[in-house]
Each structure stands twice: as C-alpha cells, then as structure tokens.
C-alpha cells in the first residue's frame, strides 16, 4: 500500500490525504493534552476507543439527518472523512455547570442549568481559544449570520439527540464541543459537522454517581483514565472485548 501524505497533525489526530479527491483519512492518536498543551501524556488505547465512539455517534446522527464529514471507519485507528473548510470556531454546548463555566461565573460544578447554553470560542491555541460573541464572528469574517443560524440549528438538534442517547445508558451529557465545516459540492455550499465526538471533547458523568468518564480524569489527575473511556464504549455497546468486531447497540441502564 502506498504511503499516504500527511497534511496536518494536531494534539489528538493526524490527517492524511484520502484515497479519492475530496476525502481525508483521520487517524486517532493516544496522545492527550490539557491546559492548552501545558500538560501532556498518553492514554493507552484512547485512539482506538475514540475512533469507535465517534464512528458510532456520527453514524447515529447521520440517521436523523445531521450532515457530517464521516464516511466510514477504515480500521482500528482510522476513518475516512469528507474534506471540508473548517470554520475557525469551537461551538460549546453546556447543559450542566462544569469546567471553565463554573470557574468564570462561580457556579457550583454539577448545577443543572435552566436551559442549555451555546458558547463560541475562536480556534487559536496561541490565544487559548478565547470566548467570542456573534459580533466578533461576523465582524472578522469567520462566519456569516446564515452560517451561524445553520450551526445553531444543528447544534440544538445534536444536543437533544445525544443527551437522550447518553441518558438511556446512564450517562449525563454535561457539556461538549463541536466543530463545523463548509462542504463544497459543485457551486453549492452547506455546513456540516466535522472533527469528532468522544470523551476527549465531551464531559460525560455517570447519571447516578456523577463519576467522570471523560478527559477530566486526565486533566484533574483522577486516575483510571483508560477505564473511563472504556466504560463509555461499553455502555454504548461498542467496546471491542474480543477483538475489533461489530457489537450490538447500546446497553440500556436501569
């Protein structure tokens, strides 16, 4: 097999040239970082689990009509995706107070918010991905109002669906980050979901015990980091316990 040309390497993934025009291969690494890269480490098996979890969640979202960049999983660590023009924004959805929201506003972590909050952050590691407003976004041309309308509509649908899906397996979707891209097909452009959905960019707590099952276990030195990711995959019914094979759907928690 010919060696693929590497196009980009981030903190958690590598992008390679795809087999066909308009496609890329996304490789999931075991590397982990937090505090804008000031803390780094390795979570053994994270790339394999995130590949499977993101594949499952992106596929389920596709079933309800959410357009995504996901095409198919290629192997344990790689998936084929559509090439998009990434919009330089992180769209953060908050259902429960945690992380920087609790720190900024002095709200006790674990407080259920009266309604879900959508925040925008400018994707720039050198600036620590600052919080920005719609006025900043449109003023600096990162996205226009129509783009924002599309992103908000998709984000609300994604949040409703994923919150219900996770609740069904005993997990609270506390908050999560989404990224979107522009997909160009002939002269038509549409906004689609990109990046990944995994314990790397979601806060996922056990609904009964509030036990954390996400990257916060790494950020806060809580230990059993791999076990947290594995538990998410297990509850979704995709933990490859006997080799990489397709397993049944999510396990409903009582």
Would you give an account of this structure?
The chain has helices spanning 46-63, 99-105, 134-139, 145-167, 216-219, 225-236; strands at residues 6-9, 13-17, 23-28, 31-34, 39-42, 70-73, 78-82, 85-86, 89-96, 112-122, 131-132, 171-185, 188-194, 202-206. Residues 242-254 have low confidence and may be disordered. β10 (112-122) and β11 (131-132) form a beta hairpin. It has a domain at 85-224: ATP-grasp fold, B domain (D-amino Acid Aminotransferase, Chain A, domain 1, 2-Layer Sandwich). It has six helices and 14 strands.
Q: What count of helical segments does DSSP give?
A: 6
Shape: globular
Our Rg estimate from Cα atoms comes to 18 Å
How far the N terminus sits from the C terminus, by CA atoms, comes to 47 Å
Query: Which topology of the domain at 85-224 does CATH recognise?
Result: D-amino Acid Aminotransferase, Chain A, domain 1
State the helicity in percent bands.
25-40%
Beta-strand percentage range: 25-35%
Task: Please state the structural category.
Answer: alpha+beta
Give a summary of the structure in a few sentences.
The protein is α+β, with helices and mostly antiparallel strands and 254 residues long. The protein has helices spanning 46-63, 99-105, 134-139, 145-167, 216-219, 225-236; strands spanning 6-9, 13-17, 23-28, 31-34, 39-42, 70-73, 78-82, 85-86, 89-96, 112-122, 131-132, 171-185, 188-194, 202-206.
């Amino acid at each position: 097999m010919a060696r693929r040309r590497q196009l980009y390497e981030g903190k958690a993934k590598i992008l390679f040239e795809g087999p066909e025009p308009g496609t890329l291969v996304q490789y999931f690494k075991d590397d982990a970082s937090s505090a804008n890269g000031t803390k780094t480490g390795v979570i053994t098996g994270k790339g394999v689990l995130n590949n499977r979890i993101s594949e499952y969640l992106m596929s389920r979202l596709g079933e309800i009509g959410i357009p995504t960049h996901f095409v198919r999983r290629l192997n344990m660590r790689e998936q084929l995706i559509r090439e998009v023009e990434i919009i330089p924004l992180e769209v953060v959805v908050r259902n429960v107070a945690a992380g920087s929201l609790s720190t900024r506003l002095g709200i006790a972590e674990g407080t259920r918010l009266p309604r879900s909050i959508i925040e925008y952050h400018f994707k720039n590691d050198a600036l620590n991905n600052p919080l920005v407003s719609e006025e900043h976004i449109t003023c600096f041309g990162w996205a226009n109002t129509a783009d924002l309308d599309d992103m908000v509509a998709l984000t609300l649908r994604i949040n409703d669906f994923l919150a219900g899906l996770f609740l069904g397996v005993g997990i609270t979707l506390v908050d999560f980050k989404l990224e979107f891209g522009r997909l160009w097909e002939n002269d038509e452009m549409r906004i689609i979901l990109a990046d990944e959905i995994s314990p790397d960019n979601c806060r996922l707590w056990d609904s009964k015990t509030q036990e954390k099952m996400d990257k916060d276990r790494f950020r806060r030195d809580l230990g059993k980091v791999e076990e947290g990711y594995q538990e998410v995959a297990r509850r979704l019914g995709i933990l490859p316990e006997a080799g990489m094979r397709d397993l049944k759907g999510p396990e409903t928690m009582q």
